[in-house]
Sequence to fold (417 residues):
Amino acid sequence: MRELKAEVIGIGTELLLGQIANTNAQWISEKLATRGISVYYHQVVGDNPGRIQEALTLSAARADLIFITGGLGPTDDDITREMMAEFVGRPLIKSEEAMKQLAAFFTARQRSMSENNKKQAQVIEGSTLINNGVGTAPGMIIPWQEKFFFIMPGVPNEMKMMMKETVLPFIRETYDIDDVIRSKMLRFIGIGESQLEMEVKEIIDRQTNPTIAPLASDGEVALRLTAKASTIDQAERLIKDVELQLIERVGDFLYGEDGDSIASAVVKLLEMKGLTLSAAESLTGGRFSDWLVSVPGASQVFKGSIVTYQNEIKTGVLEVPTSVIASDGPVSHACCYQMAKRIKEKFNSDIGISFTGVAGPGRFDGHEAGTVYIGIYQDDEHYAVEKYQFVNNREMNRTRSVKKGLEQLYYLLSSMK
Fold:
């Protein structure tokens, strides 16, 4: 059987305005991938007749299965069913089954059905109704020129129910799909995207199945391995073979896989080592603590933190010596060292970490925006303070500081016996 190509179209001006995220496309792609169906394109189009028709024409020219979400509501700007009917050249007709489902929905909620809701009972002639068990708008399966359009509401829980209960079983019954697709993310930190790609370029160049795709994010990089095979076990074996080759080249920078984060990796290592951590934060303003406590189980290893944003809190609460602030300033190696040491002692933790610097956008105390010090203290013989120079972007500097702090902790903990 030839490979099935799929496309996902999200309809709604609110998607283009950024008022809501298009999570539907991500979810649909993930579910199709596990069934061996490749999604080649995502489109997002506003509630505009001409642009919707363009999107439908383009998708029909390059995909076999087209999944459309959004634009099935009762208001005038919900025009997906009308545009789809126009595209396939068939009339909209009233569905008695859809009307019964609508009536039952409103009766169960002791609400009256307004006149415009009846619009949702219109379906395209020749389509198959997709029952909506949690909302008002039914979906449709529309055959057209050896292709299928699947129209579903944009509300995620309604779309997901339709996909699970109707659409995916329909595809499985209609096509003899044997292949499955499996993906695995390998997550690295402490190495840049260009360096990582250079180190594994030979492996990437010779691979066709699995494919290897580098993906960069702020302060870290990932490699996505994607394999296609006739069984799940076979796909996972293909991935494992390549994974071992990659680890041989760049395994020193590997901290996790799939849904792991550098914060969860640090928490896991603290648990394994039986160690506790506390934090003193200035420019990060509690962001480090927030990332850490977002990890389940962090309460077993993280004692707490103090946000020492102003000098009087550094000296009065954390008890950084006033002489250090006077001689070296709050953005300095000496202050960062004292912050890490004092928080460790005050909270009686095994390790203290501190953050101080200039988030920006302007200079402060003679330092450029992006000047950051991060300190880690265990005892007088085991401590480190690192200086970084980031960019002139306040939010980016705060996030990078947190990630660098977690990176320092990860490699420290990894090196411990």
Observations:
- The mean pLDDT is 93.
- The CA atoms of residues 324 and 335 lie 6 Å apart.
- The first strand starts at residue 5 and ends at 11.
